[in-house]
């Protein structure tokens, strides 16, 4: 059941903002709440947040565009976040990324047409000593160094 069937985006954001009223630094927690509820923080949400927190749209958009956790459209059923930081790249990350994208049948930064998987770049998961790394539905997968690791990710996404 989608929240959007129950209330408009503006009403949802007003309700979430009311719960954070008076909290210092409410913008980031509110954006996370919206991302959790809607699966995205789109232009409509940015405008509503700006109005609720008495900020400019540019201020809110700046925060949304700075953090990779926020997206303007919902992710697929499964989310694969692949590390593109220097440490992972130095261990063959680009070739592994290409193989992973081919195996999952989705381009980096895109959601597959069937909505089952989104492949996103991230920049450092903090597992540099055991890279290349990814998060698959929030669970870390380390040492992605060959077909077996790619197959393990593909099997998780297929489940």
How are the elements arranged and paired?
Layout: H1 9-20, H2 27-38, H3 43-53, H4 57-66, E1 78-83, H5 86-89, H6 93-104, E2 110-111, E3 117-122, E4 134-136, E5 139-141, H7 147-158
Parallel strand pairs: 1-3
Antiparallel strand pairs: 1-4, 2-3, 4-5
Helix pairs in contact: 1-2, 1-3, 3-4, 6-7
Task: Write up this protein.
The chain has 159 residues and is α+β, with helices and mostly antiparallel strands. Helix content is 46%, strand content 13%. It is built from seven helices and five strands, in the order H-H-H-H-E-H-H-E-E-E-E-H. It has helices at residues 9-20, 27-38, 43-53, 57-66, 86-89, 93-104, 147-158, and strands spanning 78-83, 110-111, 117-122, 134-136, 139-141. Strands 2-3-1-4-5 form a five-stranded mixed β-sheet, covered by helices on one side. Strand 2 and strand 3 (117-122) form a beta hairpin. The longest helix is centred in the N-terminal third of the chain and has 12 residues, at 9-20. 26% of the residues are buried. The model has no long low-confidence stretch (mean pLDDT 91).
């Amino acid at each position: 059941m989608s929240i959007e069937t129950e209330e408009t985006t503006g009403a949802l954001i007003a309700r979430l903002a009311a719960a954070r009223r008076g909290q210092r630094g409410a913008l980031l927690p509110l954006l996370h709440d919206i991302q959790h509820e809607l699966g995205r923080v789109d232009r409509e949400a940015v405008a509503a947040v700006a109005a609720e927190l008495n900020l400019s749209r540019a201020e809110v958009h700046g925060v949304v565009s700075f953090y990779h956790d926020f997206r303007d459209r919902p992710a697929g059923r499964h989310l694969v976040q692949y590390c593109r930081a220097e440490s992972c790249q130095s261990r063959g990350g680009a070739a592994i990324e290409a193989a992973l994208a081919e195996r999952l049948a989705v381009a980096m930064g895109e959601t597959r047409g069937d909505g089952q998987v989104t492949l996103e770049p991230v920049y450092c998961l903090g597992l540099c000593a055991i890279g290349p790394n990814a998060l698959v539905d929030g669970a870390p997968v380390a040492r992605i160094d060959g077909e077996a690791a790619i197959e393990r990710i593909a099997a998780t996404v297929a489940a």
